[in-house]
Amino acid sequence: MAETKRSWISEITKGFVKENPVLRLILGTCPTLAVTTSVENGIGMGIAATFVLIGSNVAISALRKFIPDKVRIPAYITIIAGFVTVVQLLLKAFVPSLDKALGIFIPLIVVNCIILARAEMFANKNPVGASALDGLGMGIGFTSALIVMGAIREAIGNGTILGYPLPVIQSGGMIEPILILILPPGGFFVFGILVATAQRLSEGIDRRAVARGLKKARLAPAGNAPTAEDCAACGLGCASSVVAEASASPADDPKPAADAASPEGGEDR
Length: 269
Hints:
The chain contains eleven helices and two strands. It is mostly helical. It is about 65% helix and about 0% strand. The chain has a two-stranded antiparallel ribbon. It folds into two domains: about 1-180, no CATH class; about 185-255, no CATH class. The chain is flat, with a radius of gyration of 26 Å. Helix 4 (about 70-95) packs across helix 5 and helix 4 (about 70-95) crosses helix 6. The model is unreliable at about 250-269 (pLDDT under 50). A hairpin with a 2-residue loop joins strand 1 (about 160) and strand 2 (about 165). The longest helix has about 35 residues, at about 185-220.
């Protein structure tokens, strides 16, 4: 039960930093740069993409045994297009201003690399529950990246957050807005900074995971230490160190053997 719970948590959280679709896998860059001139647009695009991700992952996973391999990509696009149509109709009915702001980028979710990649690489090979969690995690990661990027660009470039003015950043105030940040060059600049930040965070997570693996190997009882096969799936490249630590045993220490060879009390006095 504990292993299942950890697996579920891993499926959801992997898209936050380590496999963030925007900042680590560099997918969906076009809508990321285009709609993040404000936090509101980022939230709207993120929620729409998350809905489509979850729905398409579940549908494709449920139908994976019935979709012929030769036509799987057209089938995926057809399924994704159905969910995108639902999203677009809901936006037009309930949030027409957001639909107008996002414009063509809502229909373009149909060919969004993030959604197609998760369909091909995960939903096509895993059960429905895991695919739904994968879609949720990747959607949260995508939405988080859009919100952070939109907040930086809107705050520094326009002096507002969610449309509310920031007293410190105003024309004629203490800090002048840097207008280039709400233009395409500013989008690339902020995007590069966030990619570098995500890279450093991911490296820190990997180092902590390696340290935990080494500690577990040292503390493991004899016969229960992790093997190379146990470590190979993690992808951190620490398997050799962990197995080497786990393989060390008192039997390999020559000092006890030498002590055992000498007769007890055999020293001449």
